[in-house]
Design brief:
alpha+beta; 5 helices; 253 residues; 4-stranded antiparallel β-sheet; Jelly Rolls; 6-stranded antiparallel β-sheet; 15 strands; single chain
Length: 253
């Protein structure tokens, strides 16, 4: 991260890596998404979520440690970060979601602070846009700077049904990645564009913590050494005794 990028991420709580993926990469990822959407239970749903992206093929697994992305994750989470969980969403119309998380009250999973010139952060999301997100079209929104808030959010700005003026929609071009700390107050505005919203979410955490409570099997697919390192379970994990076909090791509740 450059000094300017680090400064702006620190005060905003998010940053955009513009058009990281090229046309061929986008075409391949969207073609796979088409197949999964057609096979889903309700392909024409206004909003739907898809799990276990890394089982969708090598092109989806390559996003785990995309070379453009990794230096930013290292700058925010440190060198020894891990992939906590992943999923995708499509939105055709409507589908607003409440704003969630905030710098206050403090959470060990969503924390954000800076000490000794170093960012210390919990869960970090990378949202890859497979389709253009025009200005005013809806989708990802946030209250910039709320990851540093000293007070819990008032009810008057909790809903995105009638969004407050302080809530910003974040537009970006297809192939871009939005990186944000989950300490940021964020959510989803109703989708109004004529094209689908397609977003891939890869969520990373420091090595020592797990939010989702499920752990990848680093040997399930043709992972690179770098990917195997990122997919390792936390230093201290819950007991695990079950493996799914998608390559997850599931912890009993």
């Amino acid at each position: 991260m450059t000094e300017e990028e680090r400064y702006l991420f620190d005060i905003r709580g998010y940053m955009i890596l513009n058009q990281v993926l090229n046309e061929q990469e986008l075409a391949t990822l969207n073609a796979t998404f088409d197949e999964k959407q057609v096979k889903s239970e309700n392909p024409s749903a206004g909003r739907a979520r898809y799990w276990n992206l890394i089982s969708w093929g090598k092109d989806y697994r390559n996003l785990i440690d995309h070379p453009t992305l990794v230096p930013y994750l290292e700058g925010i989470l440190g060198d020894d970060f891990r992939l906590d969980h992943d999923y995708a969403e499509h939105m055709i119309e409507g589908g607003a979601g409440e704003l969630h998380f905030n710098g206050t009250p403090y959470s060990t999973m969503y924390h954000y602070n800076v000490q000794d010139d170093k960012i210390h952060c919990g869960l970090v999301s990378v949202a890859w846009a497979l389709k253009d997100v025009p200005s005013g079209a809806g989708g990802f929104c946030c209250i910039p700077g709320s990851h540093k808030s000293s007070f819990p959010p008032p009810i008057s700005i909790t809903s995105v049904g009638k969004p407050s003026d302080c809530i910003e929609q974040i537009p970006c071009a297809a192939g871009s990645a939005i990186i944000f700390t989950e300490a940021l107050r964020h959510g989803t505005l109703a989708w109004t564009a004529t094209t689908q919203r397609r977003t891939l979410f890869y969520k990373y955490s420091p090595r020592y913590v797990s939010f989702w409570g499920t752990y990848y099997d680093p040997k399930a697919y043709d992972y690179t050494n770098s990917q195997q390192k990122i997919l390792r379970a936390p230093y201290i994990t819950r007991p695990s005794n079950q493996k799914t076909e998608e390559g997850y090791i599931i912890s009993p509740s």
